[in-house]
Model the fold of this input.
Amino acid sequence: MSVAIQTSDLNKVYESAFGGQDVHALRDLNLTVQGGEIFAYLGPNGSGKTTTIKMLLGLIFPTSGGIEILGSKDITSARVKRNIGYLPEGAYYPDFLRGEEILRYYGQLYGLRGAELSRRIDAVLQTVGMTHARKRLLRGYSKGMRQRIGIAQALISDPQILIFDEPTTGLDPIARKEIRDIMANLRDQGKTLLISSHELLEVELISNRVGILFEGVLRVQGTISELLTNREMVIEAEGANAQSLAALLGRGIATEDQIGNRVRLRVAEGMNSYEALELCKSHGLTLSGVHPRRETLEELFVRVVGAAEAERRLAS
Ligand SMILES: Nc1ncnc2c1ncn2[C@@H]1O[C@H](COP(=O)(O)OP(=O)(O)OP(=O)(O)O)[C@@H](O)[C@H]1O
Ligand SMILES: [Mg+2]
Done:
């Protein structure tokens, strides 16, 4: 798999205009986004996600370090520009335009004209499921519909790379699911997606790799399966009673759920799984299921950001 985006020791310092403190927004960032994946770029507010995205788009310039996109170090070239679609954070489009007019305008910015432009507009409306509303004014669109037009706008030049800054923020669960499905479909068509988000449950569902940024430093980067470790084990069993459950609790096996004599038990992290199963059997339980339980992305995020905050406190 080829590398779509690579930054090397990228730094960004925002210089203060009035003698205040400069903001070192990114420090030695080495970000790798592989072709054909959904990469989730995560981090608390102000950690530097939008700054990174703006540099990838050539909207602001690095203080030092390099960026390579689709094998090119010249990220302002027409080939690179045409191959990046961008959905800005909280994208705003004029209310008095129709969905298809917005797409026509952006298509023209990419030099599309005539039949080719019409064909692209039809295609992107289809991709985001907005063909039915193409002639309606944006004023009458729901937030989810606006966001879908925003994605259509990002797709107009048929780019290989899509950068979406908080694509689902402020949307209801149905609209979120729709946007998620669109993103997964784009990935399945071979597109590369870099998405920044605070919606960790959602990100865990669709992304292949994640990076977590804290105060301009990329603290972890890797695939979901590499980063989320199996932590505890869940046992489903029958034949439990109050005495057996109390005894098991004393040995580190907690009851998570109970319906009649059927229970779901959680085995403490680090406990030997064979020993746990034998203990349950020795207390008269009949086992019906055993499952490893993986750490969630939210737990990983809290762990990584918590450790970074603790380090900072120690350093100051
Ligand atoms: N134009 C600017 N001038 C000065 N400082 C800036 C500028 N833009 C961003 N910053 C600062 O750089 C840091 C990173 O901001 P950035 O917007 O990249 O974070 P973010 O991760 O996108 O945050 P959020 O999750 O809130 O969108 C913050 O400390 C911010 O205040
Ligand atoms: Mg941001």
Observations:
- The chain has a mean pLDDT of 93.
- The first strand starts at residue 3 and ends at 14.
- Residues 14, 23, 25, 43, 45-51 surround adenosine-5'-triphosphate (ligand 1) (CB under 6 Å).
- The radius of gyration is 24 Å.
